[in-house]
Please model this.
Amino acid sequence: MKKIISLLLLTFMLFACSRQEDWNYDPSSDVLSDEEIINLEEIFFLLNVKISDSTYLVVQSIDSIRIFINNTLWTICSSESIDTTYINKKASGNTWYTEKKLNYLVVAHKNIQKPEFATAGDYADYLNAIHELKPGEYAFLIESFQIALKDHTVQKYYPYAYTIINLEKNQRNLYVGEIEIKLY
Amino acid sequence: MKRIYIICMLAGLALFTSCHKPGIIQVKNDISGVKITEVKWGNYNLSSELLPGQSSQKVTIDGYSKKLPATNKISFIMRANSQYVYLETTEEFTLNEEDELLIILNDETKVSN
Model:
C-alpha cells in the first residue's frame, strides 16, 4: 500500500514539474526546418564616433543602435560597456572626448520578435520572421543610436551610416569591420 | 413469408440509414503568408496541403464510421520559410448530421502546440 502511495506521489510530482515548464514555453523548440542550413545569427563591428576631425566621443556605451539589413530591422542593441575612467579624456560642453581613436564593440544578435503565441497569426509571423539570408551582398545600415551625455540627458542621433556586407553560405556570424560615424 | 422478410429487411435498412446521416466538412486556410499541410478534423484527413486563401474539398463524413454529431479539433502543420510547426485549434468544431460545416482558419484562430 505504501509503495502505491509513494508511486502516486512521485507521479504527481513529475506531472506538477512538467506543468511548471509550460510557463517558459519557447516555440522555437517546436519549430523544425526542412533544410540543414546555418542562418546568420550575429553581426559584430567596431564603432567609433568622431565629434571633430581629430577627436572621438567618450561615453560608457552607445545605446539603442538600430541596425537594418537591406530594409529589414535586424536588431536594436547597445555596444559593450567600457570603463571611461581609464581613458585620457577631456570635457567639451556636455560631452567627453579623446584625441585617440576609441572603438566600441557592438555584437548585434538577430532579434526575432516573439509574440504571445496564442493565435495562428502569431505563429505565422514567427515563421515568416525566421527569414534566411542567402549568400550575397547586403546593405548594412546604422539608422540611429543614442548616448548619455555628461549631465545624464540622452541625445539621439540619426547617422544613416551604410556599408556593404558580404554573406557566405552557412555563416553563423559576420564581422563587418570598423565603422566611423561623424557627428559634426 | 418471403415478402414479409423483404419488407423487414427494407425497413431495417431504412431505419439503419436514417440513423447514420452524413455530414460535410470543409476547411479554408486564411492565415497570412503560410501554407498548412496534413489538415485533420480529429482523425479525419481534410486536406494534404492548403495554400493561403485555398479551401479544401468538401469531405463527407458518413455516419457509419463516425457517429454524428461529433466534436473535434482541427490539427495541421504550418509551414513557411522551410520551417514548420505542429498546431491544433483550441476551439472544437461540432459536425451534426446533414450539416455542412465550413471552418475558416485565419490569423485570429486560437491555436496551441
